[in-house]
Amino acid sequence: MNGELIRMKLKNFGAALLIASTTLTSFASAALAADVPSPNQYYWPKGMNLAKLRAHDSESDPYGSEYYTSYHKKFEQLNLQEVRKDIEKVMLTSQPWWPADYGNYGPFFIRMAWHNAGTYRAIDGRGGEEGAQQRFAQLNDWPDNASLDKAKRLLWPVKKKYGEKLSWGDLIVLTGDVALNQMGFKTLGFVGGRPDDWQSELIYWGPGTTFFPNKSSFQVGQNGTLKHPLAATHMGLIYVNPEGPNGDPDPVKSAAMIRLAFGRMAMNDEETVALIAGGHTFGKAHGAHPNSCLSGPPVANGVEHQGLGWADHCIKGTQTADDASTSGLEGSWSADPIHFTTQYIDNLLNNDWVLGTSPTGAHQWHTKTDDKIAPDPANPNDPSKMRPIMMFTTDIALKTDPVYHKILARWAEHPNEFADAFARAWFKLVVRDMGPKSRYFGSEVPKETFVWQDPVNMPAKPINQADVRELKKLIAASGLSDRELIKTAWAAASSHRVTDHRGGANGGRLALMPQNGWAVNDPEELKTVLPKLEQIRDKFNAHSARKVALADIIVLGGSVGIEHAAKKAGVDIQVPFAPGRGDATQDQTDVNSFNLLEPTADAFRNYYRADADNTPPLNALVDKADTLGLTIPEMTVLLGGLRTLDVNSGHSAAGVLTKNPGVLSTDFFTNVLTMDTRWQKVAGQEDLYEGYDRASGQKLWTATDVDLVFGANPELRAVAEVYASDDSKAKFYSDFVKAWTKVMNLDRFDLQR
């Protein structure tokens, strides 16, 4: 199978991200040196950037093009119990070059796993554990990830031992799981199957060129919202500022930021509290020395540092665990920071907390009595070196907020409920970006299914190719037009996003809320089309031992429509079809969660609805193609072909540059490239143009930005010229069918196993 079809993450192999940084708190100018080749965006920053769509080759992958299709097979050869033992040995063996707190790297490893997962954001599905992007700039150099470079160096002997069989993404998650279990907590299980990335992914993490704690990195507007699709409140943070919004130690305001940021990362209130309370049960914050003592992050240091950052030049003599500096806050939350207990909850609720400062001057909270009950990280068995516990402003926020407080109070009375909630929230945290259970691998996958996994009921006995032929005849005789069939199949399949493997045709959720009501899908038209397809399903299932799902009928209908539309052009084509999809129920569909997949723009249907952040149509075109995992040629051939098929949302004529709508042809490319047409903007409509015959002045067409860009942008024009050429007809039909089939099968993870 084509490796591009199941590529699990999108990488930017075509553009270099240059980061210059000299201190922990700065993200210096991105201006490029005069003697360095500069990308077009340097000179024309508002120009169309196609870099995302050049992310589907394997030039940077040392394992080659089949790595993404075969990694899970390598992974399943592992003896996970042996790997766990190796990780635990590392965890309990303190190294002099980075001494372990309390002789146990467990809390450090939990932070590493959490912060690798915590970049996930539900709005666009980007970020998360898969790919282990924490190894690369920017994430490796974020202030919130300070010193996690050492965590991965500690684990290098384990990675070295298992090589290709164990990706960094899986190793990081498994290490967090080992740490939790070694310290007395029982997780739900472990899921493998995350292939690694080989270069930094091009993701918009926020505006500007500064990192937290620079106040210009604060991303929350005056109305208390974050710009889409951002989730963290500051550039360079995983979630929120532990000292309070923009350094203001106000627990009430902090609670609002917590709810906002964790909500953007797909966590509800109970999951949010469970993660904070569970995570802060372990370990400590580190603020032994001020930031002025630290060198820059890894990317800013010389090669002699070997990719490590934040060297502390204030350490005198031999480094100990007391010397660590990361956040600037200092202390542990409990008296037993290397075991799972309810001490965090008990301490938070049962003490009176007063605002103070850390040794470096950061805002943090202490008990009124300031009793020294916590062990010293370098001398945990020396009672003379005991320390007081502390809390962040974000911790006090949980006590102050009435909803969060109620959850904590319940768990204080019922600690087993707390343990269960933390186990479920942690599991969701580390696998949320992996999609449905069909992408899970390994012997420790939990049996329980959760609604956030988008479950699908698979047929016990799927249809065969003879059944497919029978169903195609029934669909062709249904009275539905080619346009309706193709449009419905695209509406179902194009909801998929490769960023977190959600959406798609599988599950038949186009017939369920909320997808059946999305404006882009023309809900009134669906009310006519879907019942006819359901009748075909029911008629077939009534007499066959093999069962077909509505999801299969929808995709097969698209095949029927495309084959017939090509036949109108005198071309016989066969659209590949792989049966075996299932249908979901409304109860298996989280409406609020699925609403995040609703597109505000789909250039392939010439649909654009200005969102709250006014994303330009051309940017939206690239983003949509990116989330479908398309290359530039695939995007081009699909859009051009779909225009001739007349499947625009709202049956708009914009961009249908053909005299024969409904006939699959190369007319779009021929007519968008010809110099016989003069284009001009329509007065009062920002994104609409009219095309006039240069000779007669007759109005011929209407089009939008996402149509005309294929003639205007030199790189897209170069591809469009291929499909407009007289000798490229066969190539056009072949490439269109391949790209169409790729989109239809994006969510067929069962085929990829």
What would you note in describing this structure?
Helix content is 37%, strand content 5%. The protein is built from 24 helices and 11 strands. The strands form 5 sheets. Strands 9-10-11 form a 3-stranded antiparallel β-sheet. Helix 4 crosses helix 12.
In short:
The chain has helices at 40-43, 67-75, 80-91, 106-117, 148-162, 168-182, 251-264, 269-279, 343-350, 393-400, 402-413, 415-431, 465-476, 482-493, 523-543, 550-567, 591-595, 617-627, 632-644, 667-673, 705-712, 714-724, 729-744, 749-752, and strands at residues 284-285, 331-332, 353-357, 363-367, 372-374, 387-388, 601-602, 607-608, 677-681, 689-693, 699-703. With 753 residues, the protein is mainly α. The strands form 5 sheets. Strands 9-10-11 form a 3-stranded antiparallel β-sheet. It has a two-stranded antiparallel sheet with strand order 1-2. Strands 3-4 form a two-stranded antiparallel ribbon.
Q: What key attributes describe this structure?
A:
about 750 residues; mainly alpha; three-stranded antiparallel beta sheet; two-stranded antiparallel sheet; disordered N terminus
Kindly provide the radius of gyration, computed on alpha-carbon positions and rounded to a whole number of angstroms. 28 Å
The number of helical elements comes to 24
Q: What structural class do you assign from the helix and strand content?
A: mainly alpha
**What does the average pLDDT come to?**
93
Order of the strands making up the biggest sheet: 9-10-11
Low-confidence stretches: 1-31
Overall form:
globular
Distance between the first and last residues' Cα: 11 Å
Major beta sheet summary: 3 strands, antiparallel
